[in-house]
Amino acid sequence: EFIGVDWVFKSKWGRIRPVIQTDVGGNPTYDTFRIDEANGVIAVVWGLDEVGKVRVGVISQERQVADNPFGNDQAAPVFEQTPMGLVEKIGNRLETPEETAVREAREESGITVVKSVSRPKFPKQNAGAGYFGSWDELVFVRVDLEAINQVKFVSDEIIYKVEFIKLQQLFRDIKEGKSERGLARDATTLSAY
Questions:
Q1: Average pLDDT rounded to a whole number, residues 35-46
Q2: pTM of the full predicted structure?
């Protein structure tokens, strides 16, 4: 599997290794790194407001980045993003993508009532196919917006706030690149929306 690979870094969250792209004749044309993450799930958490308009849950979460666009000596940036996380073990089995999405939505956005869980026809998502070898699962979690616990987060992650915003606002944030919720430039979140 790792023919010609000089090294592989492994952890419980995945692995990274060098790879070489070749042309049709098998000649090397490009080298890069391949990142294989543990099984991940992207949860698009949404609900209908009092007038029947869709609102999407976004969290403001501090993220360590490899290269901080504001300078590597600056604090880690805060991103406006969708809840996401890794599949966990329940007893002797792994969670289903749907179970992971609901758990992450509860932990990261304070939801208490799930109305439905669904998947798109192609439920896979890749943040960057040029270097990511793993594909996350994409799950839509519809929630009751009247049953949100804004003050209680179960997450041990650095999440500053949760908001359920209108789609128009989400699109404005993506267009501008940032808002008071954080940077709207997380590749995983953008491709999920």
A1: 91
A2: 0.84
